[in-house]
Input
Amino acid sequence: MRVRGTVAYDGAPFHGFAVNDGVPTVAGLLNGALSRVLGTEVVLTCAGRTDRGVHAVGQVVSFDAPDGASLEDVQRAINRQCRPSVVVTALERVADDFDARFSATGRTYRYRILDRPDPDPFIVLRAWHVWGPLDVDAMQLATADLIGEHDFSSFCRRPTPRPDGTPTVLVRRITSASWRRVADGLSGADLLEFEVSASAFCHQMVRSVVGTLVAVGRGRLAADSMPLVLDARDRQAAGEPAPPEGLTLWSVDYPGTTSDSS
Output
C-alpha cells in the first residue's frame, strides 16, 4: 500500500534531505528506520529536497508498505529510532498513484531573520542574524514585484545540464509572498519572517530571494530593482543566498487538500 507521511525535522545535524553516502541525511535516517520497522527495503520520495541546515515543519514523503501494516505502530517505532531531530507527525494510506513530489500543487517556505545588533543564542540555528533594523517597507515593495510567473534564473543555482543538452526551464509562479513581525516562541525575540508560496521552487531560490530582499532592506539595492534583476536572468544580478539555518519548509499542498502546519 502507498503511504503518505508528514515529517518535521531540525536540519542542523544533517547534510540535507537527500541520501548522500558517508554523511547523515534525513532521507538516509528515515529509509533505514522504515526498512527495519517494515522488514523490507524502503526508499521514500519527498515533496522538497531541502539543503544542508534547512528545517521542515511540514515535509511530505511517500513510500510503499506491506498491506495490513499498522501505521500507528509504524509511526511510533520510527519516532523511537529517529528522535529527537526527526519526527513523523502523521502517516496515512493514500491512492497507489500518489507521489509526494509530483502530486504536489504548492509548497510554502518560511524564513526568519533576527535584525538587531545583538545575536540571540537560543535561535542561532533557526534564524539569520542580520545587523539591523532592516527597512521592511522597502523589502515589502520589492517583494510585490516577485509575485506571479517569472523566469527566476537570477535567483537559482545553475542547474546541471541535461544529457540531451536541452536547457532547464526556471520559470516559476509565486502565488504569495510577504514579510511580518513575529515573536520567537522560546526567547521572545522579535523576528522578521518571510513567507512565500509557489507551485514549485528551483534550487536555492528561496534563500537567494531572501538574500536579495535583505540587500534592499540594507539599502544596497533599490526597492524597485526586482524587475531588472529578473530580466537579467543572471545569478550575479541578485544578492548572495541567505544562510540555510533561517529556512523552513512549512507546508505542502495537494489536490483537494491544504497541508498547513501553522
